[in-house]
Design goal:
Structural class of chain A: alpha/beta
Mean pLDDT of chain A: 95
Distance between the termini of chain B: 66 Å
Strand content of chain B: 25-35%
Low-confidence stretches of chain B: 35-60
Largest sheet of chain B: 8 strands, antiparallel
Radius of gyration of chain B: 27 Å
Strand order of the largest sheet of chain A: 9-10-8-7-6-5-4-1-11
Number of strands of chain B: 33
Number of strands of chain A: 17
Distance between the termini of chain A: 38 Å
Number of helices of chain A: 16
Shape of chain B: globular
Number of helices of chain B: 14
Low-confidence stretches of chain A: none
Mean pLDDT of chain B: 86
Shape of chain A: globular
Strand order of the largest sheet of chain B: 10-9-15-6-7-14-11-12
Strand content of chain A: 15-25%
Largest interface: A-B, 41 and 24 residues
Oligomer: heterodimer
Helix content of chain A: 40-55%
C-alpha cells in the first residue's frame, strides 16, 4: 500500500495585498496567471513523489486561488486529480469574497472540490477596510449563499480578532453572524503583526493601536464559548470544527504526515525531507515547476522530536506517548520529562500518561511552552 | 652635541580639551624640522584611536625637538605631553615635575575653562613658568583680547604679549618657540652628583620590556648603569638609554642632568616603574629620593563581567594585557550570583573606567556587563576598627556599624551665568555644599562646591552637560572623607536578591533611587509566565515595589506547511534571546537591565 499524502497547491495572486499579509502573494499580476497555471500543471504532471503516494487531501491555498479564472482553476484541479486521488479525498479551496462567481463555484464542484474556506475576517466593514480587504460584509454574504447553492456543505470561515480598532462588541457581532450561518469549521486567528507587512511599519512608527493581551485573550475565550454553543469544538490553537469536520489537510502538518507543495514557495515534507520551491515568480515560471528543491534538509532525530512537540501540541489532543515512542524509539517522558513537569507545574500542560496536551492557559502561552521543548 | 643644560628647555603644554594642545604639539614637531610634512601623522602625540576620538590624551608621552633659534643657537626642547583629565592628575603632576615650564593654550573663542584652571594651578604648584598662548585666533568667533583678559584676571599671570596663534593654520608658531626659549628656565642639575632621575611614565613593549620615561635631575645614566628604584627598592641594569625622537625611541650613549629620556632593563611590569619614583645608581645612591612620590590608588570600583560566561578567561587575559601598561588599573576575581564570574576592578576615576571598558570591548572584542560604580567607603565598627568598602555586597550588617564615611571632592564648575541657577540646583540635589562663586566676566562664573564622590560617579557629568546645553565645564579633586548617613539599597527580583544591583546610597536619596530603579527594571524585565515582583529595600524594609504582570498571550496563530521551518527559526531565535539573559532565581533578566539602572535619567 502506498503511503498517504497531502497535496498543497499555492496560488500567489490577490486582487490586492492585505495590510497584515506576509504570505507569498502578488496583486495586479493578471498577465502572469496563465503562465503560472501552465507551470503549476507541468509541476504536477512531472512530480515523481506523487507517483509514490496515495493522495488523501488536496488544498489549494493562496493568495487568493479564486482570483484565477474558473477555467484555470478547473485545469489545475484536473491536473491534480489525474495523478490519482484516494476515494473520499478532501479537496479544499481557499476563496475570498469579491472573487467568487456562480460559474467558478460550479467549476470547482465539478472538478472535485468538496470543501471551501472563505475569508470573512469580520462582520464590520470598517474593520475589513482597516485590514485592507477588498470585500464588505454584503460581498461575504453573497459569496456564502452562492457557495451553498453550488453544493458546498463542508465550509470553513476565517475570522480575525485583536484587530486595530476592534471592540469586544464588534467581535461578539462577528461571532453572532457565525452562529447564524452555522459553518462546520471556523478558523479564528489572533492578528499577528509580521515583519515586512504594512502593519509592521505602522506598528514600528506607533500608528497601530491594537487591543491589549488581556483583551485578546478575552476575545479568544468569547469565541471558544460562542462557537461551542453551535457545536464547534476547538481542535487546534486557532481552529474549531464540528467533530469529524476538522481540516484533514491541515492536521497532516501538525501530525508531521507527508505533504507535497506545488507552486511558488510551496513547502514539502516527504520521506523525512523538507524542501521548498523558489520564492521568485519569474524563476518558478521559467523552470516550469522543475526548479531545484531549495533548502533541502532532512531533520535529524532531535529536530524531528522538537517538531513533533511544537506541532503536535498545537492540537488539543496533544502528543501521544505511544506514537512518540513508535516514531522515535525513545520514551516521551525520557526526552522531555523535565519540560513536561515544569509546564505542568505552571498549569500550562497536562500529562495523562498516555498523552500530553496543553491546557487553555497553555494554549494562550503556547510559544513559551514550545520554547521549553527545544532541546539544547 | 656638547651637553649644555642652558640649551635645554623641558616643557609641557596645558589646555582644556579641544583648545588645541595636540595640534600645537604637531606644529611644533613639524617646525623643528625633524619631520617632513609627509611624515607628519595627524596629532603625532596621541597614538591610541580612542584618545583621538575623544580628543584627549591618556598616556603621557614625550618628544625631543631640536630648534634653531633666531640667534643661531640650537636648542633641545623636550615636550612632555600630559593627560588632560582629572582622573590622571597624579600622572599629570609627575609630568609637570619633569618640566621647568608650561605652555598654556587658551582657545580665543572659548576662553579659560575649568580644566585649564585646574591644570594651571597644578603647574603653579610645581613652580613652572607659564607661557600663555592664545590659539584659534583665525576663528570668526575669536576674541583674543577677552581671552588675554581672562588669563590675566582669572589666572593672574601677565598675558599681554602672549603669542596670538593658529596652530591649525600655522600662524605665528615661531613666536611660540621664541617664548619657550626666552620664558622657560633651563634645567640646572648637577651632572657630577649621584644620579637622581624621576620616572614620569612608562610603557610596556613586548621586546624590550618596560620602557621607563624619565627626567634626569642630577648625575648621569648610561647603558650598564645599575639603576636602583628607590620606592620599589629594585635594581635593574640599564640595557638601553635614549631619547624620544618624533614617534620613535632613539638610543644614545648616556643621559645627563637636565635631559629627558628613557631606559630599558628587561623590566616585566609597569607596576615596578611607578610614576614619581626616583631612579639612582645602586652603588652611588642619592641620599634621599625626589619629593612628591605617592602610590596612586583607585577611587572608583565596579564589577566587570563577560556577557557570555564562557569568555571569563578572555576577559582575564585582556585585563592582564591592559595592566601591562596601566599600573593604576586594579582587578581581582569576583563571583556574582546574578552575573557569574567576573572581576572587581578599581579605577582612578570615571573616565579611566570608561576608557578601560571601551578598550576591552573594542580592542578585545568582549561583550561586557558592568555594575554600578562604587567609591570607597570607610566603615567604622563599634570596636572602632575601620574597613574600606568598595563592593556594596561586602557591607557588614548595620548592627555592627557605628558610623560610615564617604569620599568628598571639591568641584569647580565654569559656566555661563544663565545656567547658574540650574547647576546650583543640580549640586544641591547631589548633596553638594556650596563653597563659593566668582564671576569671571559678566556672563561667566566659577562655581565651587563640595560634593560627595558617589553623587558624581553616575550621571553627574551628563546631567551637567544637558542642563547647561553643553556649556558648563567641570573638574574635581578629592579632598577627604566625611561622615555620612549611608545605607545599602538592595533590589529583589521575584523575592531574590540581585547582588549585582546593590549599591550604597545616602539615606536621603534612597527612596527616590529605589523607586526609579524599580520602575526602570519593570520596563526592562520581560513578562514571564508568572508575576514578577521587583522590590527595592534597605535591610528588611521594602521602600519601593513594582510588578511585571504575568504574560497573558504568546501565540503563533498560524502554523501550516510552508511555515514550519520559519516558525521553528522564530522559536529558536526567541530561545537564543532567553539564553542571553541572566537567570535570577527563575526570572530572566536582560543584561541591558543591569546597565540601564546605572543611567536613571531624570524627568
Amino acid at each position: 500500500m502506498k503511503p498517504g499524502m497531502g497535496v498543497y497547491i499555492h496560488i500567489p495572486f490577490c486582487i490586492k495585498k492585505c495590510l497584515y499579509c506576509d504570505f507569498p502573494s502578488f496583486a495586479g499580476r493578471q498577465g502572469r496567471y496563465e503562465a503560472y497555471k501552465n507551470a503549476l500543471i507541468k509541476e504536477l504532471e512531472a512530480s515523481e513523489e506523487l507517483a509514490e503516494a496515495a493522495v488523501e487531501t488536496v488544498y489549494i491555498g493562496g493568495g487568493t486561488p479564486t482570483a484565477l479564472p474558473a477555467g484555470f482553476l478547473g485545469e489545475i484541479l484536473e491536473a491534480a486529480s489525474k495523478r490519482g486521488l484516494e476515494a473520499g479525498a478532501e479537496v479544499s479551496v481557499e476563496a475570498n469574497p469579491g472573487t467568487l462567481t456562480k460559474e467558478k463555484l460550479e467549476v470547482l464542484r465539478s472538478c472535485g472540490a468538496n470543501r471551501l474556506s472563505i475569508g470573512m475576517q469580520a462582520k464590520q466593514d470598517r474593520l475589513l477596510k482597516a485590514l485592507g480587504r477588498i470585500h464588505g460584509w454584503d460581498d461575504f454574504l453573497a459569496s456564502w449563499e452562492l457557495a451553498l447553492k453550488a453544493g458546498f456543505e463542508n465550509m470553513n470561515v476565517d475570522i480575525m480578532f485583536c484587530l486595530p480598532g476592534q471592540t469586544m462588541d464588534d467581535w461578539r457581532e462577528t461571532l453572532c453572524e457565525i452562529a447564524r450561518l452555522l459553518p462546520r469549521h471556523v478558523s479564528a486567528y489572533s492578528l499577528s503583526v509580521e515583519e515586512g507587512t504594512a502593519f509592521f511599519e505602522l506598528q514600528r512608527t506607533g500608528k497601530l493601536k491594537l487591543p491589549s493581551e488581556e483583551e485578546d485573550r478575552a476575545m479568544f475565550a468569547e469565541a471558544s464559548l460562542e462557537l461551542g454553543k453551535i457545536g464547534l469544538r476547538q481542535y487546534e490553537i486557532s481552529n474549531f470544527a464540528v467533530p469529524g469536520s476538522e481540516s484533514r489537510h491541515n492536521c497532516r502538518y501538525w501530525k508531521r504526515e507527508g505533504t507535497l507543495g506545488f507552486g511558488l514557495g510551496a513547502h514539502s515534507f516527504w520521506n523525512g525531507d523538507r524542501w521548498r520551491n523558489s520564492y521568485d515568480l519569474n524563476e518558478y515560471v521559467r523552470s516550469a515547476g522543475q526548479g531545484r528543491k531549495e533548502g533541502l534538509a532532512r531533520p535529524g532525530l532531535r529536530e524531528s522530536m522538537e517538531e513533533a512537540m511544537f506541532l503536535g501540541l498545537r492540537l488539543n489532543e496533544g502528543v501521544s506517548a505511544e506514537k512518540f515512542k513508535a516514531e522515535f524509539g525513545l520514551a516521551l517522558e525520557g526526552v522531555f520529562g523535565s519540560a513536561i513537569h515544569k509546564m505542568a507545574a505552571l498549569g500550562l500542560m497536562e500529562n495523562s500518561g498516555s498523552r500530553v496536551f496543553l491546557t487553555d492557559k497553555g494554549r494562550d502561552l503556547s510559544n513559551a511552552v514550545f520554547l521549553e521543548f527545544l532541546l539544547d | 652635541m656638547l651637553h649644555d643644560q642652558s640649551k635645554i628647555r623641558n616643557f609641557c603644554i596645558i589646555a582644556h580639551i579641544d583648545h588645541g594642545k595636540s595640534t600645537l604639539a604637531d606644529r611644533l614637531i613639524e617646525k623643528s624640522g625633524l619631520l617632513t610634512q609627509r611624515e607628519m601623522q595627524d596629532q603625532v602625540l596621541d597614538t591610541m584611536d580612542l584618545e583621538r576620538e575623544r580628543g584627549i590624551t591618556i598616556k603621557a608621552q614625550a618628544v625631543r625637538l631640536v630648534h634653531k633659534a633666531d640667534s643661531g643657537d640650537e636648542y633641545i626642547l623636550n615636550l612632555i605631553d600630559t593627560p588632560g583629565h582629572v582622573d590622571f592628575s597624579y600622572e599629570v603632576s609627575r609630568s609637570l615635575a619633569a618640566c621647568e615650564g608650561a605652555v598654556l593654550v587658551v582657545d580665543a573663542a572659548q576662553g579659560v575653562e575649568a580644566q585649564t584652571l585646574a591644570n594651571v594651578y597644578m603647574a603653579l604648584e610645581h613652580e613652572l613658568e607659564i607661557v600663555p598662548v592664545v590659539n584659534k585666533i583665525d576663528l570668526a568667533s575669536a576674541n583674543p583680547e577677552e581671552a588675554i583678559r581672562e588669563i590675566e584676571d582669572f589666572i593672574g599671570i601677565p598675558a599681554a604679549d602672549a603669542p596670538l596663534i593658529s596652530a591649525k593654520n600655522d600662524i605665528n608658531i615661531d613666536l611660540v618657540f621664541e617664548k619657550i626659549i626666552a620664558g622657560i628656565p633651563s634645567p640646572k642639575g648637577d651632572e657630577n652628583a649621584p644620579l637622581k632621575a624621576m620616572i614620569f611614565d612608562s610603557v610596556y613593549d613586548s621586546y624590550k620590556g618596560v620602557i621607563v620615561f624619565m627626567r634626569i635631575m642630577d648625575g648621569k645614566l648610561k647603558k650598564g648603569t645599575k639603576a636602583y628604584f628607590m620606592a620599589t627598592e629594585k635594581m635593574y641594569e640599564a640595557v638601553e638609554v635614549g631619547f624620544f625622537g618624533p614617534g620613535k625611541f632613539v638610543p644614545c650613549d648616556e643621559l645627563m642632568a637636565g635631559d629627558v629620556g628613557y631606559m630599558t632593563a628587561s623590566i616585566k611590569s609597569v607596576g615596578d616603574t611607578r610614576p614619581g619614583d626616583t631612579v639612582t645608581e645602586f652603588e652611588r645612591r642619592a641620599d634621599k629620593p625626589l619629593a612628591g612620590y605617592k602610590s596612586v590608588n583607585p577611587m572608583v570600583y565596579c564589577g566587570i563581567f563577560p556577557a557570555d560566561g564562557a569568555k571569563y578567561q578572555d576577559l582575564r587575559d585582556a585585563l592582564d594585557k591592559l595592566k601591562l601598561n596601566d599600573a593604576s588599573l586594579q582587578f581581582e576575581p569576583e563571583n556574582s550570583i546574578a552575573l557569574g564570574f567576573g572581576f572587581r576592578c578599581g579605577f582612578l576615576g570615571l573616565l579611566h573606567l570608561e576608557v578601560i571598558e571601551e578598550r576591552l570591548e573594542r580592542e578585545y572584542n568582549l561583550d561586557l556587563v558592568t555594575t554600578a560604580p562604587s567609591v570607597i567607603y570607610r566603615i567604622y565598627k563599634h570596636d572602632e576598627s575601620m574597613m574600606e568598602l568598595s563592593n556594596p555586597s561586602d557591607m557588614p550588617d548595620p548592627s555592627v556599624v557605628s558610623r560610615m564615611e564617604e569620599p568628598i571632592v571639591k568641584a569647580e564648575i565654569i559656566l555661563p551665568s544663565e545656567y547658574i541657577g540650574a547647576i546650583m540646583e543640580l549640586c544641591q540635589q547631589r548633596r553638594g555644599e556650596y563653597l563659593s562663586m566668582e564671576y569671571v566676566e559678566q556672563t561667566r562664573a566659577i562655581l565651587r562646591y563640595e560634593l560627595p564622590l558617589n553623587e558624581i560617579i553616575y550621571d553627574f557629568f551628563d546631567t551637567l552637560k544637558s542642563r547647561s546645553r553643553g556649556y558648563a565645564s567641570f573638574d574635581y579633586e578629592l579632598i577627604g572623607y566625611k561622615e555620612s548617613n549611608l545605607v545599602r539599597l538592595d533590589i529583589l527580583v521575584n523575592h531574590e536578591l540581585v547582588d549585582a544591583l546593590s549599591f550604597v546610597v545616602h539615606a536621603s536619596g534612597a527612596y527616590e533611587r529605589g523607586r526609579k530603579i524599580a520602575e526602570k527594571l519593570k520596563k526592562e524585565i520581560p513578562r514571564h509566565l508568572f508575576e514578577v515582583p521587583i522590590q527595592a529595600c534597605i535591610g528588611s524594609k521594602i521602600i519601593a515595589r513594582e510588578t511585571v504582570s504575568a504574560m497573558r498571550k504568546d501565540v503563533l496563530a498560524k502554523c501550516y506547511g510552508g511555515d514550519i521551518t520559519r516558525k521553528k527559526k522564530l522559536l529558536e531565535k526567541q530561545k537564543e534571546g532567553k539564553k542571553r539573559m541572566r537567570l535570577v532565581g527563575s526570572v530572566e533578566v536582560p543584561q541591558k537591565a543591569f546597565m540601564s539602572v546605572l543611567k536613571l535619567e531624570e524627568e
